[in-house]
Every structure is written in structure tokens, then in C-alpha cells.
Write a structure and sequence with these properties.
44% of the residues lie in helices and 17% in strands. It has 707 residues and is of the alpha/beta class. The protein has 5 domains: 164 residues, UDP N-Acetylglucosamine Acyltransferase, domain 1, CATH 2.160.10.10; 39 residues, no CATH class; 258 residues, Rossmann fold, CATH 3.40.50.620; 162 residues, Isoleucyl-tRNA Synthetase, Domain 1 (Orthogonal Bundle), CATH 1.10.730; 54 residues, no CATH class. The protein has a 7-stranded mixed β-sheet. Strands 1-4-7-10-13 form a 5-stranded parallel β-sheet. A 4-stranded parallel β-sheet has the order 2-5-8-11, with no helix packed on it. Helix 1 runs antiparallel to helix 3, helix 16 packs parallel to helix 18 and helix 17 packs antiparallel against helix 18. The radius of gyration is 35 Å and the shape is extended. The termini are far apart. The structure holds zinc ion. Zinc ion binds next to helix 12.
């Protein structure tokens, strides 16, 4: 493109972008932005022709005249416009695409001292707001908008909007084909907001102050939980003093449960146990989804009745969960036992205008519930843009979800005002939680994958129906990942609990799942399970050591140098354990405190103490370990039971009698002074995973966890 046509485009850009520009003469004579680019066009030609001095001199003069500094080497596409240009600086290796617009105080600056490309490249149709700085050899994509005063240090994709310091992409235009044609929308990318950060800081200091006041008043700290709804940690204040109503979404019973189900079940089991430990009366509800497409499909596959599928897999679920030490909930309702309640709620929603029926189906009309998206922090417009194209044509909006489904030929069905059908998935939890708890209750839990759509829909339909807040605290546990990918049934990268329990004791699995905070993702691998196994073994080995000590301790006082240190750890232990668990059920930290005590007591025993004081300290240790273990429902085996379990999961080829006999044979060999034979026996046993330990009063054995 020739210089003249570029200037013509620049001239046109003034009229396109500035509504105040009406008169051509005015623009030519008195528009600094236009003058700046005019000068630059000439400068750039001279610079291209390698004319010395003049281009820089002209650029310098133009700067005096216009307040805009454009280095002669900068490459600028046609249709360039600078509005109120005072203070604009464009560095020499800048590269600006077509039809870009800059406001005052913008810097397209360089970073670094090396020669070569130091300034940014702007794509076509980029708009840069007042005072924004774009620094370094980065690329700003086509159609990007840079907010006022943003400082951009990283490349920006096409169509992005950037704000803040340092610049963060917040919105990206997406174009999707919908039934009614292309739809433009904005997807929000969350970014730190300095004002909100300040508020958070205030929040934190208020919490700290409250804690301090509570301590001064002699009250213990309170339990604090992370609430998905408010996206922050809050003090747990029950709706009814002293009582907690808690509902967790259970499984759809159509297959064996996998490790992800185990995590969720164990997390809420521990939360319930801990709240009870803290003196709250917990009423815990966990449902079974016993009617669903997946169950119906499974029944077809297996050629059995759908309710037999549900019944069988409910039993399998109990078998797995019992082994993992997951307690039964107070009520474990099934969807199909609550059809009248479900129908009453669906009818209520239709009567109130929140739902509509079509051909025997009933849908919840999402846009009628103004707060839709408040739990998952999504916005309807965005979700519409992401909705699949092949939506049900009969629905008023692709976002609307089924409350009631007309039954198809040969499918289970119940009579309803809309004809024979069955409930949609979400409605059952509303019906069962209201039935067994209340219209408003304290805690609703589940895996993070349930936040959307399941819990968002539950919330919408429940609050629309009752007109009251549904749940006070929403608690969600994190995913399990395998090779950093989310584990899920649909990806096929999952392990059933059954498979894992072939190789590891249930206590290992439970410990492993609790050794990470419940909201963090857990990377699943055999190696980490083996680490958990080694930790548990260390625990039981210590318990054996304590037991040995207690049976052999004498009254002759022999203080250990570690006595003071153990005493200190014991005195602080329960407070620390409680503090960890009070802080959003931080089981990982609580286990850390348990193992700190284990380490300390081992050090104490290494010094071979004796006397009544030592005995008292060890009895106290035992008591604290079992108290804390009880809350988490781990470490409640006797050491012998642990070794039995290891023999089974490690598939040790000996019975206990075999081991006893081998130890005797070795003992005989040693008496004969046949050291070679004795060693051979020891070695053979070691290869099979049994380690011998010679003690004062004979030889003990244990299962090697490293095998
Ligand atoms: Zn649910």
C-alpha cells in the first residue's frame, strides 16, 4: 500500500473513531493525532530510504508539535488513529496492524538492552486505552482491547480484553452457532481484583481478631469451613444451635464404585465424625440414585430388572464402604421411595411459574430464577454460548433442565399429573433433603464435579420452590487425578475400590485419601499408596514398641533427655489436632501432628527410659493417638491385625504357623552353631517379605512394607 493511500485511511479513521470530527479542514489543520501519523508516514519513508538524521529530526519536531513520540522505524498499518494523543510513545521496533486506535498516554515500549525486536507487535483492530503500557517484544492479537492503565507484559490472544497491573485477560469473545444463528458471548476468566483483595485482607484480619477475642474469653476457636457459595472460609454457625443437618449426594447404583466415590464418602464421613467430636448433634443424609438412564441401560445389557441392578449395586456399595470404614448415614433415602414428594415439588414449581410441561416432560425454566449461577459462579449468557447445538427443540431455552421425564416404552414409570414418567436426576435431592432435613439446612456436600450442573440446579429448584435459602454451607471435595488428568468413568482412567483393595488394605486407602486436604486434587498412584502403607506400618510399629515398653518397664527411674520435649508435644497435641481440623477439616495437617508425636515418642524410646514418669508419658501418648485416630477412623487395629492384613494384601506365601516353625528351625540351627543354615532361613523369609527381628526374649517377625 502506498503512503498516500495509507494517509487516506488514517484520515478516514479520524472520522470513524471521533464523533466530534466533522470538518476535513479542521482535521488537517488541528488534529495532533492525525499530524503525528502524517509526520510518521513521511519519516518512515525517509527512514526506509536510509536518509540519515532527517527522520529523527522530523520525529523530534513532531513530538514538540503533537505531544506524540513515534520512532521513525516503527511499522504502523493504515487506518491508525490516536485520540487525545498527548504523551503517546511508540518505540522504534513497534509493529502496529491495520485500523488500530490508541488513546492518550499509551506507551508501546521496549524492554531489555539487546539489539533487535524490543517493542510490541499489535495485530489488526486493536484498541489501547488511556495510559496503558504494552512493554516488550510481545504480540497483541487481532481485535484485542487493552483497558485503561493496564500494564501488559505477556502476549494477548485474539479478541481478548486485558485489564489490570500486571495485565490479565478477563474476557474472550466466543462465536458459537446456535439455533437462531451465530451468538457472540463473553467468557469470564477470573482475575485478582485489588479492591476485592483488600476486602479479603480485611476479612482475614477480622477472623484473626475474632479468634483472639474467643481465646481471651476462654472460648475455643470455631470450626471454619470453605463455602463454595461464598467462595471463602466461614465460621460454621449451625441454623439450630448445637445441631447440624448435612446432606451429601450419594452414588447412582449401576456399577461398582471407584476411588473417586471412596474419596467423597470418606471426606464426608470424617466431617461428620469431627463435628460430632466437637459436640454437635449431626443428622447426616446420604442418598442413593436408584432410577436413572444408566441403571436402565445396565439392566438392558444384563437382561435383568432395573430395580435388581439398583439393589445389587447398593449392596456392592455397602460392601466397599464398610471395608473403608465409612459409617452409615442416619438416613439413606432412595429416589424411588420419594416419588410423591418429588411430584408435589414439581407441581409446586409449575404452579409458581418456574416450570413448564411439554408432552409429558416437565422442565425448570432457568431464566425465571434470577440467581441461577450463583453457586458455580457462571453466567447464563456465557453458558448459553457454550450450550450444544443439538438442543431439544421443545425447550424454551437450552439451559432448561428436566424435572420430570415422560417414560419411554418399556421403561419404569410412575403416574403423575403429566402422565406416566420418572423423575429427572436433580429433583430427587431437593425432595429428599427437604423431607429428611428441612427446607433450609446447614451443609450440602459432594464432589466438585457436582457443583455444576447438579448442585446449581438443586439450589435453583429448591429456592424457587420454598422461597428460602436452601443450604448455608456448600462443601465440595476435589478430584482424583491419574497422570495429572481428572479420573472419571467417562475417560475410562479409573480404578474400582475392589481392584485397589486387592493390593492394599482399606486402611491404606483411607489414610492415603486423608493425607491430602479434601479440597485439593489427589494424584493417584501405586507408589503413593505404598508410601501411605509405609506410614501406617511406622505407626503400628511404634504402637508395638510402646506396648513392649509398657510390659517391661521397671520402677527404677531413668529420665530420658527427650522427656521434656515429649512432654511438650503431648501437652500441645490435642489443641494442634483440633486447630488443624477446625481449619476446614485439614486432615493432612492433623496427620502431620500425629506423625510428629510418633517421631517424638520414638526418640524418647531410643534413649531407653524407665520409671513411673516414663510409663505415664507413654500411656498418655497411647491415649492421644487412639483419641485422634478415632476421629479419623484410622489406626484402630491392633498391630497383629495390621500384620495379618499385610500378609493378605502382600500375598505372603506362609501361614503364621509356617513362620513360627521357620523361626524355630532357625533357632535350632543357631543352637547347633550352624550359622550358614540359620542365615539361609532368614534370607529365604526375607525374600518372601518377612523380616525377622531378634529381641531379648526371642525372635519377632514383621511383614516388609517395602516389598
Ligand atoms: Zn444430589
Amino acid at each position: 500500500m502506498g503512503v498516500w493511500s495509507m494517509i487516506k485511511r488514517d484520515y478516514g479513521a479520524v472520522f470513524r473513531n471521533d464523533p466530534a470530527a466533522r470538518n476535513g479542514l479542521e482535521v488537517v489543520l488541528a488534529y495532533p493525532g492525525f499530524h503525528a501519523i502524517l509526520f510518521h508516514r513521511i519519516n518512515h519513508v525517509l527512514w526506509d530510504l536510509r536518509v540519515p538524521v532527517i527522520p529523527r529530526l522530523l520525529s523530534h519536531l513532531a513530538r514538540f508539535l503533537t505531544g506524540i513520540e513515534i520512532h521513525p522505524a516503527a511499522k504502523i498499518g493504515p487506518g491508525f488513529f490516536i485520540d487525545h494523543g498527548m504523551g503517546v510513545v511508540i518505540g522504534e521496533t513497534s509493529d502496529v496492524g491495520e485500523d488500530c486506535l490508541l488513546y492518550q498516554g499509551v506507551t508501546l515500549g521496549g524492554t531489555g538492552k539487546e539489539k533487535g525486536k524490543r517493542h510490541p507487535t499489535l495485530g489488526n483492530h486493536v484498541i489501547v486505552g488511556t495510559g496503558a503500557k504494552i512493554l516488550g517484544a510481545i504480540t497483541i492479537g487481532d481485535h484485542a482491547k487493552i483497558g485503561a492503565n493496564a500494564v501488559v507484559l505477556d502476549p494477548v490472544p485474539d479478541y481478548a480484553i486485558v485489564v489490570g497491573v500486571p495485565g490479565k485477560v478477563i474476557k474472550k469473545k466466543i462465536l458459537r452457532m446456535m439455533e437462531e444463528g451465530p451468538v457472540e458471548s463473553l467468557a469470564r476468566v477470573y482475575m485478582p481484583d485489588p479492591v476485592e483483595e483488600k476486602f479479603r485482607e480485611f476479612d482475614r484480619s477480622i477472623v484473626e481478631l475474632e479468634k483472639k477475642i474467643a481465646r481471651l474469653e476462654g472460648r475455643g476457636g470455631a470450626v471454619r469451613v470453605y463455602n463454595t457459595l461464598s467462595a471463602k472460609k466461614e465460621e460454621l454457625i449451625p441454623l439450630t444451635p448445637g445441631k447440624i443437618g448435612m446432606y451429601a449426594c450419594g452414588v447412582t447404583v449401576y456399577d461398582l464404585s471407584h476411588i473417586g466415590h471412596a474419596r467423597s464418602a470418606i471426606v464426608f464421613d470424617v466431617i461428620r465424625r469431627y463435628l460430632e467430636f466437637r459436640g454437635l448433634a449431626v443428622k447426616y443424609i446420604r442418598n442413593f440414585t436408584d432410577i436413572d438412564d444408566k441403571i436402565i441401560n445396565r439392566a438392558k445389557q444384563e437382561g435383568i430388572a432395573w430395580d435388581t441392578v439398583a439393589k445389587n449395586y447398593t449392596e456392592e456399595y455397602y460392601r466397599d464402604m464398610d471395608r473403608l470404614g465409612v459409617g452409615r448415614a442416619d438416613v439413606e433415602p432412595k429416589a424411588t421411595d420419594h416419588i410423591p414428594e418429588i411430584i408435589a415439588i414439581v407441581k409446586g414449581l409449575v404452579d409458581k411459574g418456574y416450570a413448564y410441561g411439554i408432552d409429558g416432560d416437565v422442565y425448570f425454566e432457568v431464566k425465571k430464577f434470577g440467581d441461577y449461577g450463583k453457586l458455580s459462579k457462571r453466567d447464563i449468557e456465557e453458558m448459553l454460548a457454550g450450550a450444544r447445538v443439538e438442543v431439544d427443540q421443545r425447550k424454551r431455552s437450552p439451559m432448561d433442565f428436566a424435572l420430570w421425564k415422560a417414560s419411554k416404552e418399556g421403561e419404569p414409570s410412575w403416574e403423575s399429573p403429566w402422565g406416566p414418567g420418572r423423575p429427572g436426576w436433580h429433583i430427587e435431592c431437593t425432595a429428599m433433603s427437604i423431607r429428611h432435613l428441612a427446607e433450609s439446612f446447614d451443609i450440602h456436600g459432594g464432589g466438585a464435579d457436582l457443583i455444576f450442573p447438579h448442585h446449581e440446579n438443586e439450589l435453583a429448584q429448591s429456592e424457587a420452590y420454598t422461597g428460602k435459602p436452601f443450604v448455608k454451607y456448600w462443601i465440595h471435595n476435589g478430584f482424583i487425578t491419574i497422570d495429572k488428568e481428572k479420573m472419571s468413568k467417562s475417560l475410562g482412567n479409573f480404578f474400582t475400590i475392589r481392584e485397589i483393595l486387592e493390593k492394599f488394605d482399606p486402611e491404606v486407602v483411607r489414610f492415603f485419601l486423608l493425607s491430602t486436604h479434601y479440597r485439593s486434587p489427589i494424584e493417584f498412584s501405586d507408589e503413593s499408596l505404598r508410601e501411605a502403607e509405609a506410614s501406617i506400618d511406622r505407626y503400628y510399629t511404634t504402637i508395638t514398641r510402646i506396648a513392649d515398653f509398657l510390659t517391661s518397664v521397671t520402677d527404677k527411674p531413668k529420665p530420658s533427655p527427650e522427656e521434656k520435649s515429649l512432654e511438650g508435644v503431648l501437652a500441645a497435641f490435642m489443641d494442634k489436632f483440633r486447630e488443624a481440623m477446625d481449619d476446614d477439616f485439614n486432615t493432612a495437617l492433623a496427620l502431620g501432628h500425629i506423625f510428629e508425636l510418633i517421631r517424638e515418642v520414638n526418640r524418647f524410646l531410643d534413649a531407653k527410659p524407665s520409671g513411673p514418669k516414663a510409663k505415664e508419658l507413654l500411656l498418655r501418648t497411647k491415649e492421644l493417638l487412639s483419641d485422634s485416630g478415632r476421629v479419623l477412623n484410622i489406626f484402630n487395629k491392633r498391630p497383629e491385625e495390621w500384620y495379618d492384613a499385610l500378609m493378605e494384601t502382600k500375598k505372603i506365601p506362609y501361614s503364621k504357623a509356617d513362620i513360627k516353625e521357620k523361626i524355630q528351625q532357625r533357632q535350632d540351627a543357631r543352637l547347633r552353631k550352624d550359622w550358614a543354615a540359620a542365615d539361609a532361613i532368614r534370607k529365604e523369609m526375607e525374600e518372601q517379605g518377612i523380616i525377622l527381628e531378634d529381641k531379648k526374649d526371642g525372635t519377632a517377625w514383621k511383614v516388609s512394607v517395602s516389598k
